[in-house]
Design brief:
It is an enzyme of class 3 (hydrolase). It contains 8 helices and 8 strands; from the N terminus they run E-E-H-H-H-H-E-H-E-H-E-H-E-H-E-E. The chain is of the alpha/beta class and 225 residues long. The longest helix has 18 residues. The N and C termini lie close together (7 Å). Bound molecules: 2-phosphoglycolic acid and magnesium ion.
């Protein structure tokens, strides 16, 4: 067993960029959203830099980038909100089209289940997409709790989602490991007093995850088997 799991009873996983590569479908939904308004469509490499703070911020970043490039007027709140609604609509239709589970994820989840560790999901993704995605990718059945970016009053990097899940399952911070791909996961984990583990293959706004200072970095979750 990997030493980072010593004394751990609860593992909280981030979703996008940690368990699944969802950027192709997020990109497609964002492209549909922008193109139906005749706005410039973003490329996948750009979207990869923008994911991490939930869907509203994703739409804001797409509009902000287009306006910074002089391709449109600065967006007002009404436009951001309207496009966010359309984004949610399109993503709801295509969330599982090209999204893939990263190597080692199934094996890791099955191994911790066999060890009787409690596993929960703490993502900034809107909660309505979580269960259908997990079902579609055969990842259902591992998680005791599913917390989305709109489930509680505040989302990562705020510690609230982690404090909530620890309270719900009766785990102390010292018994809890936060696993994620971005600085927001590491900050949330650190602020909640948890152990933190980073993966380098996801989305961290183009920065190495080491810069966020997690306790441990693993190349793949297979290392936790
Ligand atoms: O929806 C996002 O922006 C990121 O979601 P995550 O917290 O699962 O990485
Ligand atoms: Mg993530």
């Amino acid at each position: 067993m990997h030493e980072v799991l010593e004394g751990i009873t609860l593992i909280a996983y981030d979703l996008d960029g940690t368990l699944i590569d969802s950027v192709p479908d997020l990109t497609f939904a964002l492209q549909e959203t922008m193109s139906e308004r005749h706005l410039p469509v973003p490329r996948e490499e750009a979207v990869r830099q923008w994911v991490g703070n939930g869907s509203l911020v994703l739409v804001e970043r797409a509009l902000g980038a287009a306006s910074d490039q002089g391709l449109m007027a600065p967006p007002d709140k009404a436009l951001v909100d309207a496009l966010h609604e359309r984004f949610l609509h399109h993503y709801g239709r295509y969330a599982c089209r090209a999204t893939r589970v990263y190597p080692g994820v199934h094996e890791c989840l099955a191994a911790q289940k066999a060890r009787n560790l409690t596993q929960v999901l703490v993502t900034n993704k809107p909660s309505r997409f979580i269960a259908p995605l997990l079902e579609g990718l055969q990842l259902g059945g591992y998680f005791t709790l599913l917390i989305g970016g709109d489930s509680l009053l505040r989302k990562k990097p705020d510690p609230l989602p982690l404090l909530h899940v620890m309270e719900q399952v009766g785990a102390r911070p010292g018994q809890t490991l936060m696993v994620g791909d971005s600085v927001h996961d590491v900050r949330a984990g650190q602020s909640a007093g948890c152990r933190t583990l980073g993966v380098p293959y996801g989305y961290n706004h183009g920065q190495p995850i080491a810069d966020a200072g997690p306790d441990v970095i693993v190349e793949s979750l297979i290392e936790l088997v």
